[in-house]
Amino acid sequence: MDEVFGRRDLIAPARLKELSVKSDGRGFLQLGSHLGAVVLSGSAVAMTWGTLWAIPAFIVHGVFFNFLYAGQHELSHWTVFRTQRLNEIFGRLFGFVLLFPRDFDQVQHFAHHRFTQNWQRDGELARARYTLRSYLLWVLGPTYWYTRLRRIVRFAFGVVTEPYIPASRRPTMVREARWHLAGYALIAAASVIARSSLALEIWLLPMLLLKPVHQLQNTIEHLGLPHIDTITLNTRSTRTNAVMRWLGWNMQYHTAHHAFPGVPCYYLPALHREIFTNRNSTPPTMSYLGFQLAVWRAFRHGRTEADYPDDSAWIVEQTAPAPAASRAGTSG
Predict the structure, then answer these.
(1) How far is CA 55 from CA 50, 134, 161, 210, in A?
(2) What is the mean pLDDT of residues 100-107?
């Protein structure tokens, strides 16, 4: 992917080659530690269900579970493991449990990388511009999960309308969605037959209800940055702690990731140092809380995403700029 997206002026080719080497060992360390945490927290939920201790266990488990998408994202880039078959196997497993089929995720995400912040072509911008209400519904989860579930069902019935999905890939999307629905139906049937609520307790409920925590990462990466073709300006990194960086598979170094998507997640801190820190440069960067407060300021008083200019940043650390219409003195 670096041949398509990479910024060759930011790093020496030899150093980029070093940082682009995949490792099965490093991949299993990251994936294994995250899956181990999910197993432990899920076991805690199952053992404490029906007691007050289940509440903190449920919260922790839901957070661990939702951040598995950080792993799916990396697996979709084929960068976690040197052995490509491992990326495929775990990518499909993660996509299944997260209700986010792998083939669709890869196509949508490629369009996102290829056309970052392009309203017409970025796969992640196939939405209406946010209002405060629509943003909150997305962050809290209702519209996020509705969109995911509806798409799987729609694809299963052969209805694929996303403009960024090539016609040649649509049959693959349909087959994938049908396999997912069949798998979910099998789990539901087995749960009914066994009279077990385990799938709800350690899978669906924590995943659905704790999605807002993971949305802190999903929303901070590009919202409020210029819709221009410059990775170092249209992609935001996140200022946070080591635990969150582990949980997010280092996707907090998001600007570095977009500059060179072929670099594995475990080398993103080094890549960030190479292309930013060592050059006395800093990409757009905010904290999770600072970002959400800035979004609130930007959307209050009835303002929407459409009120702000596409060619400049309007989600910033301290105060948001006045809407374009207000600066011009007219709404047009």
Answers:
(1) 9, 28, 40, 12
(2) 98
On whether the CB atoms of residues 275 and 237 are closer than 8 A, the answer is no
Tell me the chain's radius of gyration from C-alpha atoms. 20
Which of 65, 85, 66 shows the shortest CA–CA distance to 75? 85
Q: What digits encode the pLDDT tens for the residues 291-300?
A: 999 999 999 9
314 pLDDT above the threshold of 50: yes
Token pair for 214: 């993971």
pLDDT single digits (tens) 164-214: 999 999 999 999 999 999 999 999 999 999 999 999 999 999 999 999 999
| Backbone angle region of 126, left / alpha / beta, with phi > 0 → left and psi within -120 to 50 → alpha | beta
Cite the DSSP H helix spans in 115-168. 132-140, 142-156
Instruction: Please report where in the chains the tokens 């170094």 appear, as a residue.
Output: 253
pLDDT value at residue 145: 98
Q: Residue 8: pLDDT band by 50, 70, 90 thresholds?
A: low
How many residues would you count in the chain? 332
Tokens of 18: 């070093």
Query: Tell me: the pLDDT tens digits for 162-173?
Result: 999 999 999 999
| 99 phi-psi bin (left φ>0, alpha ψ -120 to 50, beta other) | left
For residues 112-150, b (16+ Cβ closer than 10 Å) or e, as one string?
bbebbbbeeebbbbbeeebbbebbbebbebebbeeeeee
For residues 290 and 317, what is the distance between their CA atoms, to the nearest angstrom? Answer: 6
- Tell me which H or E stretch contains 286: strand 285-286
Q: Pick from 210, 256, 216, 215: which is nearest to 237 by CA? A: 256
